[in-house]
Write a structure and sequence with these properties.
The chain is an alpha/beta fold and 572 residues long. 28% of the residues lie in helices and 16% in strands. The structure holds alpha-D-glucopyranose and calcium ion (CA).
Length: 572
């Protein structure tokens, strides 16, 4: 009998790969470390702190964009893909940073932002000049439809996704800000340009790419309307998983990645499980893994993220399990609670007040013991929290500022409501300066930072945690060490226990005869958990836990936000 394709993928996916065994650390350069006192993080600042990352134990850095950019969306609007933004440093400084990372055994992944460019990119400057400009077709231009925008798509950052340009009396598409026009991937010249540029960076020695909103690059030619949301526009995700996206990614694989030892992760907003199996298929014809966002919607109000609703743990378990089981043996998961677009996880899913430390460690345990490659967002390893922003003038992020204007302007929310939602959900919660020490400006800079420092830096900072054995930082170190030590953490299969329990997240990992049991209490109540029948107390050892004096019992007692990882056959 001919072996089914899925079966073959399964075999290959249990194959060992370094990128499955790695832990990735995301750096948002503007807020990581400022080396020259101008209040803006920079490349030399990163180089200075590589030993810190080495000590944490991560294998790969994902660097958010450092390219030339007017900064409308903090670097996600690129005007030159082969130049470094002056504020961040020079190309020589980049090369030095890359070399210093490699010397420490740390790989570097670049952010590849190619769904769109900046409107200041020379391609767009040309494109908008005339209908017959050679660069016209690099972008997506359409005439008005009945005197209005060509369709009802909304921008991710409020308003329509179309901007009228009177030079040629046409609209261009921008799924993000109007300073981020969408590239036309159906034009082979655009794809050639992107592949050349990627090869250029790989030849320089970078180790892979995180691909920004890569699920959006292929638009249906008829650009159909979508279902309107609370502001009257369809979601920017409307074009997700378009007709040619897999074809383009396979072409990219052939023209750029094949034969190179890289790590690739696609940011796939709007991705479904079935689509993810194609993007991240184990035969490595497209990407190594994807970021999916379903679990980031557990506390949304329907399709509207602006709310302060708390999640129901059962929804989170259901979603995580769907992805854990759905990709098992077929594709590979990436695991994250945080990134530069999300608020701080300890404030969102944990308790950043009386159980700050316990809940930060619990969340780390729950995520790092799942199957997939874990991503740590800068400061997450310290349990950095959401920020007590004052009024709207404290925010820097265009998404937050535009949403505030639009939704208060339309009367959807009052200014007070909207501020409450922003304090809970704004991307700026993740973008305040990294808290290095209890010195002025949290040791991030000698000058005033571009965005406020979280006032809790005197308590929450790296210096304090690196010196304290039971800190969140040291707990992350230990989780990373465990991953390196036990294959089961990387390759074991995942199975959920107690799907309907509203407070405990319990699951097992299994590899051959070996088994791990992970039990996480997501709330402030003390809870009991009965050890499964096939677990013998005498052969059960604690691998890691977030309370000092935990003892395995047949009836486990889990204190507020307690997390334990038990290993079967241990101590034999
Ligand atoms: C991605 C980035 C986000 C950015 C957007 C547009 O979602 O993560 O920060 O604003 O794409 O590039
Ligand atoms: Ca600087």
């Amino acid at each position: 009998m001919v072996e089914s394709v899925e079966k073959k993928w399964w075999k290959e996916s249990v194959e060992k790969k370094w990128w499955k065994e790695s832990v990735v650390y995301q750096i948002y350069p503007r807020s990581f470390k400022d080396s020259n006192g101008d209040g803006i993080g920079d490349l030399n600042g990163i180089t200075e702190k590589l030993d810190y990352l080495k000590e944490l134990g991560v294998d790969v850095i994902w660097l958010s964009p450092v390219y030339q950019s007017p900064g409308d969306d903090n670097g996600y609007d690129i005007s030159d893909y082969r130049a470094i933004l002056e504020e961040f440093g020079t190309m020589e400084e980049f090369d030095r940073m890359l070399q210093a990372a490699h010397e420490r055994g740390i790989r570097l992944v670049m952010d590849l932002v190619v769904n769109h460019t900046s409107d200041e990119h020379p391609w767009f400057v040309e494109s908008r000049k005339s209908k017959d400009n050679p660069y016209r077709n690099y972008y997506i231009w359409r005439p008005a439809k009945e005197g209005k925008e060509p369709n009802n798509w909304g921008s991710c950052f409020s308003g329509s996704a179309w901007e009228y340009d009177d030079t040629t009396d046409m609209y261009y598409l921008h799924l993000f800000s109007k300073k981020q026009p969408d590239l036309n991937w159906d034009n082979p010249r655009v794809r050639d340009e992107v592949y050349d540029m990627m090869n250029w960076w790989l030849d320089k020695g970078v180790d892979g790419f995180r691909m920004d909103v890569i699920s959006l690059i292929s638009k249906k030619p008829e650009l159909p309307d979508g279902k309107p949301g609370i502001n009257g526009y369809a979601s920017f995700n409307e074009p997700a998983n378009g007709p040619h996206v897999h074809e383009y990614l396979q072409e990219m694989r052939r023209r750029v990645l094949e034969g190179r030892d890289t790590i690739t992760v696609g940011e796939c907003s709007g991705v479904t499980l079935e689509e993810a199996k194609k993007y991240a298929r184990s035969d490595e014809k497209e990407l190594n893994m994807v970021f999916q966002f379903e679990h980031m919607d557990v506390d949304a109000d329907g399709t509207n993220k602006w709310s302060d609703k708390k999640m129901d743990l059962r929804d989170l378990k259901h979603i995580m399990t769907k992805w854990q089981k759905g990709l098992e043996g077929i594709a590979w998961n990436s695991l994250f609670w945080e990134n530069h677009d999300q608020p701080r996880s300890v404030s969102r899913f944990g308790n950043d007040a009386e159980y700050w430390e316990e809940s930060a460690k619990m969340l780390a345990t729950c995520l790092h013991m799942m199957q997939g490659t874990p991503y740590i967002y800068q400061g997450e390893e310290l349990g950095m929290t959401n920020v007590p922003f004052g009024d709207i003038s404290d925010f820097r992020d265009l998404d937050s500022i535009n949403a505030y204007r639009e939704l208060t302007g339309q009367g959807v929310f009052t200014p007070e409501e909207m501020l409450r939602y922003l304090r809970y959900k704004s991307r700026d919660n993740a973008r305040t300066p990294f808290q290095w020490s209890d010195e002025k400006y949290a040791g991030f800079s000698s000058g005033e930072p571009w965005i406020m420092v979280n006032p809790n830096y005197k308590k929450i900072n790296a210096r304090e945690q690196m010196m304290r054995e039971d800190s969140i930082f040291c707990y992350y170190q230990k989780l990373i060490r465990i991953r390196k030590q036990y294959d089961i953490v990387v390759y074991g299969t995942y199975d959920l226990l107690l799907p309907e329990d509203p407070e405990l997240y319990a699951y097992t990992r299994t590899l051959g005869e070996e088994q791990l049991l992970i039990v996480c209490n997501f709330y402030g109540n003390t809870r009991m958990f009965t050890l499964p029948d096939n677990w013998e107390l005498g052969k059960t050892e604690l691998m890691i836990g977030n309370y000092k004096d935990f003892k395995p019992e047949k009836e486990l007692v889990l204190r507020p936000y307690e997390a334990v990882v038990l290993r079967k056959n241990g101590g034999k």
